[in-house]
Amino acid sequence: MKFKRPTEEAYEELQAAYDYYNDHLFEALLPPCLITFQREKRSMGYFSKSRFIRRDGVQTDEIAMNPDFFAVVPLVEILQTLVHEMAHLWQAHFGTPSRACYHNREWALKMERIGLMPSDTGQPGGKKVGQSMNDYVIPGGRFDKVTRQLLERGFAISWMDRYPSPYQPPSQPAQAFTPIGAPQPEQGDEVGGHASARLEAALQIPAANGLDVSIREVGDKSNRVKYSCPGCKTNVWGKPGLKLICEPCEMRLE
């Protein structure tokens, strides 16, 4: 059996998912785009219109996916991210987008029609429009039905980062597709230098399959020190040994 090279396998899977959802949710109207891997901290993906140009002048849009989270979120969340960005692509070509990164009513209505409920919290009851927007699966909706069919065919994302981001995934959608044993989202998870409880629990999924995956350690910050004003509590980060004064309080930062 001839194995595909990693680049071929990783990108062909995402392209296959794009084509599948284009056919089943967007009536095959969406033009081709360039799907990329990008590591935007705390973002699972983004859309950028006409971001790339070929040497003959042809332009194409970009949908970026963040592999930092592939090992620590259910597969459906990866697919939700892809379809979320496809809805932006649809609006860019067939609708009227608002200002950059704003999720307006037109986009929200399209998301509902394809079976994903916009929510700024990723949970029922959240705001449907806004600058930062998550979504959750509508039970029995179009995304629900066609995604179950896709997964029944054995679709998978084969490649994942061995050292996932230590930051909390940006969305916590209702877990309509949560596999048995997958962690439920927890409120108040710690974000920053140490893995949250949710991420630690999520690592049990690849570990159960014998995969060597562990949360990435935050880089060495020994060259950055936090200085705080005892008065107004203003914080500043800089190299060790600085002597800093808070001008309004006339106090040295500690």
UniProtKB/TrEMBL annotation:
Domain SprT-like: 15-116
Domain of life, per lineage: Bacteria
Listed Pfam families: SprT-like
GO biological processes: response to stress
Full protein name: SprT-like domain-containing protein
Organism expressing this protein natively: Stutzerimonas stutzeri (Pseudomonas stutzeri)
